Amino acid sequence: MLEQRHFIQIITGPRQVGKTTLIKQLKEEISLPVTYFSADNVSNPDSGWIDLQWDIQRTKFQTSGVKEYILVFDEIQKISNWSEAIKKQWGKDTFENRNIKLILLGSSQMLLQKGISESLAGRFELIPMAQWSFSEMNEAFGFTELEYLWFGGYPGGAVLKNDEARWKEYILNSLIEPTLYKDILLTTRIDKPALLRKLFELGCSYSGQIVTFQKILGQLDDAGNTTTLSHYLSLLDLGGLLSGIEKYSKEKIRQRASSPKWQVRDNALLSVMSGKTFDQVKNDPAIFGRFVESAIGTHLLNSKKENKINLYYWREGDKEVDYIIEYDNKIISIEVKSSVNKSSNGLYEFRKKYNPHKSLIIEKDGLQWNDFIKIDPRELF
Fold it and tell me: For a disulfide at 131, which of 139, 178, 266, 369, Cβ 3.0-4.6 Å?
């Protein structure tokens, strides 16, 4: 914002990761005037609302005598035809040499991406925000590794960590339900909302595991097909809830056709949907191992979203590698030994076949999970 006006700044990310708080802190610390509007408070959300607010701010800008002004629109994707209105008003200010800088925030990447690709090409910079890393939660709220394993990386819920029942209600009602029934349903026609919800629940229960869509279908009461499930999974991914990691292969077509490794975007989602308590997970080695493997996956997945690394798994026959990360034309294979009985044969087979830059085993007596989640994966290369 202190640079010369050139691009619209678009901040995207799932709900409750601090996008609005970021703007509040900017307003407190920057010397430029900042005006904030939220589409959450608009009764008739159409593009005329954007035009009206922008005209009012232009008038204030002209009469105030200031040389620069920052305009912020939050939850912009809730306004119909928002991108056309933004393009028109931004272009008008550019043509008339008016130094109004613009920040757009949105929690629905589905609608944002549609508007960006249709109207704003070449006019913006994208700033992605993901759920917070362990290092961020530790620095801001004093989270321990165990607390991060369970409570995850949503800063809004950090103050509730001493009241587990209340924290679960917050994550469910302020994050999961609005994303499923507002953000996603705003973007596309969903013929079977109940199927979408059930897919999310099952995906959480399988976090860190490779499960075919056919097996998932066998556990659903509602009729559907693998194409529908694949589409719904992509919507859950864009909503910041659940992803499907692809199988590593040098053939891109085989990657896309593979069964997904189901992965929650944050362990808080796994905790809430598991029906377990923090104490139950800590005292059950098998369940604890699942949470560890899922935490490693969320750490890598959010690094992928922010740092442009590629993330895969690998399996051939009964041999498997939990995670393959790719960066700067190099690959690293990672095995998470969540139990003493888990074999490392897949890691050795993958090394023979692909000769990775490095292979790592995360285990109790070696590189431990609570150390790994402090590492930026790019530093491994």
Answer: 266
pTM for the full predicted model: 0.89
Tell how strand 124-128 and strand 100-106 pair up: unpaired
Report the amino acid identity of residue 356: P
Domains in the chain, ordered, with CATH?
Answer: 8-128 (3.40.50.300), 134-380 (no CATH)
Distance in angstroms between the alpha carbons of the first and the last residue of the chain: 33
Place of tokens 């990691």: 245
Sign of CA dihedral 123, 301, 165, 176: positive
For residues 39 and 1, the answer to whether their CB atoms sit within 8 Å is: no
Beta-strand pair 100-106/69-74: parallel
Nearest to 49 by CA among 10, 80, 90: 80
